[in-house]
């Protein structure tokens, strides 16, 4: 949302044709605008279809309704909403260079944008904390019921944080400087405080917590992998001998469990890296827009905002692509939903069909083997 520095008691009417005060902005060349719009349409299709398959898998298969899958389905749903209610209007505005959807919808689109983004970030944060508790603290506390409660709380908090962008006292311009309502320059302390709270909630707090969690997880995985590698012949000897399963003492068998859990964690880590790469530029851009008048009214602001917004939307497409790449069950479900005439991709060799619970062996010691 673009906030001007007009005093509160001096109301300036919305204008869809008059550019904001300051320097004239520079739009992208027409061929480049069309190319970006086409790419965004492709992103909308991939984001909608890919994330819809995630939701359908969890909805149609009760066995898939674990806590982590419910969280991933919620993340997919927020990306679907972002693809349907925000991206199409941005794509049209990129081509026309004019906002054609009315001043009031400008506020609504800003609220929806931050709502769905906040929800997606909240789900990633919950997942990272859950992985931290399982792998580092050896505590598996998240069950489907608790996951549903946390999902409901995350939606409520996301709505409360994003809703002021609709009813706030600050003036919101129709975005002639950007292809979407973005945070704009303002001199009101309250508006600046809200902008800072928004970017802190969207990026800085989640990024800090997730970074700490994943660093601890990486350290734990590395330490345990070295322990297994160096002491494979003596690990878990007491438990294995009691069961009379001396064959399971082999390093290869223990590596199967560690490899499975490490691969699952690596998938979540890749999602975190994608979130960071897509949202760090947007966070810096938003802060500069709010606090730097020179940056906000510079001729290059429109071009910069177009690229930044395009990159932020890329995250909604990034997640299903990673699922398809990393998760075998997701690839199989994609093939099930795909018409037979399009099933031209070769089958990916399957892994050992074993159901491994969160309490799977991660650390083997002479006394216990648990997460």
UniProtKB/TrEMBL annotation:
Membrane topology classification: Multi-pass membrane protein
Residue ranges of every copy of the G-protein coupled receptors family 1 profile domain listed in the record: 50-323
GO-annotated molecular function: G protein-coupled receptor activity
A GO cellular component entry from the record: plasma membrane
InterPro entries: GPC_Orphan_Receptors, GPCR_Rhodpsn, GPCR_Rhodpsn_7TM
Residues annotated as transmembrane: 34-59, 71-99, 111-129, 149-167, 193-217, 264-287, 307-325
Chief site of localization: membrane
CDD domains membership: 7tmA_GPR45 (cd15403)
Localization (cell): Cell membrane
Keywords carried by this UniProt record: Cell membrane, G-protein coupled receptor, Glycoprotein, Membrane, Receptor, Transducer, Transmembrane, Transmembrane helix
PANTHER family from the UniProt entry: G-PROTEIN COUPLED RECEPTOR, G-PROTEIN COUPLED RECEPTOR 45-RELATED
UniProt-recorded name of the protein: G protein-coupled receptor 45
């Amino acid at each position: 949302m673009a906030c001007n520095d007009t005093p509160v008691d001096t109301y300036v009417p919305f204008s869809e044709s008059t550019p904001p005060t300051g320097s004239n902005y520079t739009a992208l060349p027409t061929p480049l605008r069309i190319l970006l719009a086409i790419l965004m349409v492709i992103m909308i299709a991939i984001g909608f279809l890919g994330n819809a398959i995630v939701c359908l898998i969890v909805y149609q298969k009760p066995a898939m309704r674990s806590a982590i899958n419910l969280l991933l389905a919620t993340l997919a749903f927020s990306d679907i909403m972002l693809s349907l209610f925000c991206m199409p209007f941005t794509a049209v505005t990129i081509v026309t260079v004019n906002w054609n959807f009315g001043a009031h919808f400008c506020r609504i689109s800003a609220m929806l944008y931050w709502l769905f983004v906040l929800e997606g970030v909240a789900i990633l944060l919950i997942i990272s904390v859950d992985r931290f508790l399982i792998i580092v603290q050896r505590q598996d506390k998240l069950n489907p019921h608790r996951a549903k409660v946390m999902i409901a709380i995350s939606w409520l908090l996301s709505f409360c944080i994003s809703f002021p962008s609709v009813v706030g006292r600050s003036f919101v311009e129709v975005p002639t400087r950007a292809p979407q309502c973005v945070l704009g320059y303002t001199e009101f302390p309250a508006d600046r405080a809200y902008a800072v709270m928004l970017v802190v909630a969207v990026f800085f707090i989640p990024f800090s917590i997730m970074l700490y969690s994943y660093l601890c997880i990486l350290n734990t995985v590395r330490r345990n992998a070295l322990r297994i590698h160096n002491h494979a012949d003596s690990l878990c000897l007491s438990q294995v001998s009691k069961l009379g399963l001396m064959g399971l003492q082999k390093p290869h068998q223990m590596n199967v469990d560690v490899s499975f859990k490490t691969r699952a964690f690596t998938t979540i880590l890749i999602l975190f890296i994608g979130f960071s790469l897509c949202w760090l530029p947007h966070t810096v851009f938003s802060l500069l827009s709010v606090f730097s008048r020179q940056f906000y009214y510079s001729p290059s602001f429109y071009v910069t905002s177009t690229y930044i917004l395009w990159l932020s939307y890329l995250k909604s497409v990034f997640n299903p692509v990673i699922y398809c790449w990393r998760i075998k069950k997701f690839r199989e479900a994609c093939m099930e939903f795909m018409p037979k005439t399009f099933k031209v991709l070769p089958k990916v060799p399957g892994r050992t069909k074993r159901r491994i619970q969160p309490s799977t062996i991660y650390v083997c010691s002479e006394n216990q083997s648990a997460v």
